[in-house]
Amino acid sequence: MPIITENITREKKTETDFQSPEVWTKVTGKAVYGNDFKLPGMLYGKILRSPHPHARIKKINLGSVEAMPGVYASLTGAELPERPYGIVFDDELPLAAELVRYIGDEVAAVAAVDNETASKAVEAINVDYEMLPAVFSPREALKPDAPQLHEKFKDNLAWERNLLRGDSDKAFREADVIVENTFTIPSVHSTYLEPTVCVAADDPYNGLIIHTAVQSPDAVRVIIAKALELPLSKVRIVGPVMGGGFGGRVYGNLKLYMIASLLAIKTGRPVKMQLTREEEFLVGRPMIAAEMHLKMGFKNDGTILAREADIVTDNGAYSAQAPWVSKTLSERNDSVYHIPNIKTRVRLAYTNKVPTGQYRAYGNQAANFATESLLDMGAVKLGIDPLKLRLKNCVKTGDTTVHGLKIKSCALAECLKAAAEEIGWYDRKKGYGYGISAAIHASGSLVFDKNFRGAAALARLELDGRISIFSGEQDYGQGAHATFTLIASRVLGISPEMITVYSRDTLSSPHSIGALGNRQTTIGGKAVQMAAKRLRELIVLTAADMLEDPVVMEKGTLRSASDRIVELPLVAYHYHSLTCGLSLIGEGRYVPEPSEYDETGYGNIAVTYSFAAHGAVVEVDKTTGAITVHKIVAAHDSGKIINQISAIGQVFGGTTQGLGMSCYEGYLFNKGEVANASLADYRIPTSLDVPDITPIFIENEDPEGPYGAKGLGEIVQIPVLGAVANAVADAAGVRVTDLPITAEKVYQALSGWECE
Amino acid sequence: MPIITENITREKKTETDFQSPEVWTKVTGKAVYGNDFKLPGMLYGKILRSPHPHARIKKINLGSVEAMPGVYASLTGAELPERPYGIVFDDELPLAAELVRYIGDEVAAVAAVDNETASKAVEAINVDYEMLPAVFSPREALKPDAPQLHEKFKDNLAWERNLLRGDSDKAFREADVIVENTFTIPSVHSTYLEPTVCVAADDPYNGLIIHTAVQSPDAVRVIIAKALELPLSKVRIVGPVMGGGFGGRVYGNLKLYMIASLLAIKTGRPVKMQLTREEEFLVGRPMIAAEMHLKMGFKNDGTILAREADIVTDNGAYSAQAPWVSKTLSERNDSVYHIPNIKTRVRLAYTNKVPTGQYRAYGNQAANFATESLLDMGAVKLGIDPLKLRLKNCVKTGDTTVHGLKIKSCALAECLKAAAEEIGWYDRKKGYGYGISAAIHASGSLVFDKNFRGAAALARLELDGRISIFSGEQDYGQGAHATFTLIASRVLGISPEMITVYSRDTLSSPHSIGALGNRQTTIGGKAVQMAAKRLRELIVLTAADMLEDPVVMEKGTLRSASDRIVELPLVAYHYHSLTCGLSLIGEGRYVPEPSEYDETGYGNIAVTYSFAAHGAVVEVDKTTGAITVHKIVAAHDSGKIINQISAIGQVFGGTTQGLGMSCYEGYLFNKGEVANASLADYRIPTSLDVPDITPIFIENEDPEGPYGAKGLGEIVQIPVLGAVANAVADAAGVRVTDLPITAEKVYQALSGWECE
């Protein structure tokens, strides 16, 4: 397996370095983002939000709002059909009808000539509320006498899962060593740079067009068409350039899109709506908070026997993807090591707080923090080196894990060794703490839609010999366009500069589940590979027809047995003339093997799996508790790396975000009110906080992914949390089990308020 | 043959009435036209034009123009490669390099923050000219000692054609009656409502995108990519709604697009440019002016023996489509009647005036005026009723005309009779003048590109069971979208409301020659018909696969032999799941029989031919010469009418424009300067000038067109001119041979300055 080790300073481009020319538009400020977008006659919409965590709307007094100069329309839930929608459960409405369930809940909206007028109009709306008791802690919420949020969900239990593999009771009885602890992680926001914005326009010819950048436009389209009772093909999503998403914007902001659409339909004019940063914190569906009580049992030789987990996750007021995220959080991590016996209970509770969702690694990063912390606690108790403990138990190629995941390729042991070596695991410097952690993540998840597992792509030969790729997958800053370009370039044997990827218009792209579940490279890229392959075949056939002789294609030139040649533009023109206007199009349809899982969820749920091990080196000031993270080594088995510069970018970004979750970030609530709803108060790592990050790629070819590649975008964030937590514990001699690990918490632990 | 006679007042919709929902967006002011379109950071461009008809640029003093606040860039020909471009000849540059050749010639351009600043900057540019002698009359221009416009074109002869069929010298010797006369027609502008506007934007990812409404975006794209040396697929034309074109905007305004593009590339910002109405008159390529000397010979029984023509057309300073228009003007009209012997000389001369182009009927309307006037003069001399003379000589189904046109369907005689009857030809009211005239026009011209005669279309089944049609043909107000919708609706047996036609983006539509040569219904519609047919087959096959039984499709429902049914959305989802994201797409490729014509141009040059006869009833005040046109009857053989309301609209509009050319319109020049470059001075008919217009459709099914349809859009304008000219001559007793036929000219003729 070739190993690529990269340092932050790169002096020359490698062969697989490629950035889509789109990057140029971004760094020069020429890219057109959603907020740059204007339509003639466009209005601006603003939303009135609930100031109360739980209340009944007695009356909305619009007063003379609609008569205010510049105001075009107001909108309240009362005028809309009560047709709930949602991602997993249909538990929300575009605007509150009777109840508000958190501070920020959408109550009314206004469209006006400009943002100022709209804001003033919204402020002029007066709402009579009847206060209701509220509940903020998920454990409290699950109690029978807690205030109820949704009639349909008794005891505020949004979702529950009890999972049993093997016989954990027996295993724990047989265990030599048992460790257990409770770990907590707060809600964290993916803080994409660009606040969500959309422009909705509606007319009888085009139907409803929503101009917005979102990770999964097709999924958004389906939900909105259903919720607003519009024909699906009369809802079109057109995407400007996207200012980040990190999984937090798979569905963008459905409520914003719907309110803008309803205002556009009502006024007959386009309506632009943009969230403020504060609103982003309220309604941007941050990752679920979780309280995880874990217990692990070992044999004296370090063999892991069992794990038990009692997990409660905080749904907030509405569900979004929280059930799916809770599921991943509760189980994915069980497949990093051989754990034959598992007993897990996970409950998702409604609370009168910000509704939650997901962020990059779909809860797996939270689980990593808990499990990898507990593993180190086990290693201490067992007196076994934490690296050796991990190497003893970690999964390998050919394994089927406890939940049925089929491991077709795995270099996890190599990742652990490489990360350990690079941080100097066996050559430690005095005064520093060392931590290590491992992760698995689905690459190309197959569980989002039973009838739709794969992806399709089209590769079109243009009249100038260039290639256009149409894909439903989305480039939201992660570099999918560049990766697809490189894949097509390899298949066709032509320069990446000759290829353009288009993906941001639901009218012209194949449908797709979108940018989630690590689908882009593994599934989307595979479809692109197949489309390019089919196009290559069609080009060769057409050229053979032209030259009346079999041909071979090399570097964009078609050569016949008798050495006659024809170039791509002529092939394109030939077909174009024959068909009077059509182009050669290769269709790629990647339909993966179905994932067969039983009612307990046992089965193979992804095309393949990525692995990683991170190592961290930290220093802790024992007087103040202050933590300095010096180095993070990120060793990854994401199969063959398609686009090295982009892969390195993913590692730098994801590791930094993981560091944010480890040491900096988290929602603070005060009776349901977000106390740090601004980027001044909600602290994310700045450039000065970023340590030396060393990416290592173990290029272990995957049999399924395109050119042996697997996903990387999500897993980069996962093992940081465990590695940093373990390194801090190693340096401080005490362990913090409540994220983020701040100086205060370390200080408190050092002061004896909490210790291992 | 069913005959539809329609009056201007229609009380109820007929079965074939359908307007695209796009019409709704227009009448409610919600349609987004080019000038509504804005991009962030957009600049505004203005052009400095030559004030001289012919001069050498000694020096362009930009002075401190680029330093003016708000000015981003200036552009002159000196900084551009001298790479001439053109439609027929490459005889122009985006900006003048050394010479200016007419008042209005583009000399320099500026991009600034707004139109005002750009205009001021342009005014601040100082140009030193050396005056050169100019020539304004085409006949003068052809003389050897005339000032020369282009080195490559000796004696200012842009193009010449000498055509001989049969033996006209012999025929004239044998003729019993000979008439001859000279007819003139000035340049006329198609005065589309919307002045030409474009927004050009360029970046390394998207390439050059020109947002502009144009009849033939693909043709524009090819010319611009070549002229600016850009890869073809890196030039994209995206069309907003178009405010008319009438053939005058087949290529839009190439120079405007190029200058905007060059300024966008130079500044790195989007640049909007819009012509003023005055500029439209200068650079909007009005139809060529022509002087036609015609001679016709008859036998005493009215049989036409021969026609001789000496025609000089006025090209202005640059060529555009003028050679092609001159060709059509000089010959198409020979095929209305059997004329066995033809001798034609046509010369196109460069002059120091506004460059010309085309308008709706491609010169055939000018020829109609001349030939049909001369025919009536022949009838008088022969003592034969003009209607009978026409009926005796007119072509019929199965004929091959003197130039080789193969007449597959023809109801010209029926049109003549219907028009005559409807105006009361044999039941004349005293004091009124009656005129009649006939026309042929190509329907689906095949001569624009030897390698590209037909059209392609795609019909896609959407997930909601609706159908999307993608076509490269353009709806620029003529109703192509509605016609295509009706065709697809008939093929698929579903309501037109379930169908949407998309055509305005070169990225997602098949390539096409565009909206010219009466291609839209006959060729583009045929491709749509074939695409819908193929989609229907695919739907039936897919449904049969689902129901495991053969199925039939009726009204959008698929029914198996065993009476199980499945609806279109389910068929769409089935295919969508099977392919993971693709849709059922029917490809339609209409590749007409090649037109085989020899080097003299003899051959069949169109898919089929449309016919028409118009009748006019006028009154002339013999004291003042004032003309009142009371009624025009427009009898058309355009085969089966696909969309009746749209067909009626074409007749009303085209007839009114023909009336404009007959009695109102024409450029006035004063030493090369346009004396009436405004809609105040250039008089087009207003609603008060429009007479009673009665459309009659002789529904003679064509064997080739879709559902038997033929083109209508251009021919509607043609026979008006001859009919009105003949009616005025009939009423006044004198004939005006110089268009427009104004009261002054009639008065002059009545005063004896000119008479028959």
Which short descriptors sum up this protein?
homodimer, 756 residues, alpha+beta, Aldehyde Oxidoreductase, domain 3, Aldehyde Oxidoreductase, domain 4, 3 domains, seven-stranded mixed beta sheet, five-stranded mixed beta sheet, 17 helices, globular
Structure description:
The structure is a homodimer of 756-residue chains. In chain A, 27% of the residues lie in helices and 25% in strands. Chain A is α+β, with helices and mostly antiparallel strands. Chain A has 3 domains: 34-132 and 195-242 and 249-283, Aldehyde oxidase/xanthine dehydrogenase, a/b hammerhead (Aldehyde Oxidoreductase, domain 3), CATH 3.90.1170.50; 360-448 and 599-751, Aldehyde oxidase/xanthine dehydrogenase, molybdopterin binding domain (Aldehyde Oxidoreductase, domain 4, 2-Layer Sandwich), CATH 3.30.365.10; 454-590, Aldehyde Oxidoreductase, domain 4, CATH 3.30.365.10. The first copy, chain A, has a 7-stranded mixed beta sheet with strand order 4-6-2-13-10-11-12, sandwiched between helices. A 5-stranded mixed beta sheet of chain A has the order 1-29-26-25-17, sandwiched between helices. In chain A, helix 8 (322-331) packs parallel to helix 9, helix 9 (364-382) runs parallel beside helix 16 (718-732) and helix 12 packs parallel to helix 13. Chain A is globular. The two termini of chain A are 39 Å apart. The interface between A and B is large, with 60 and 61 residues.
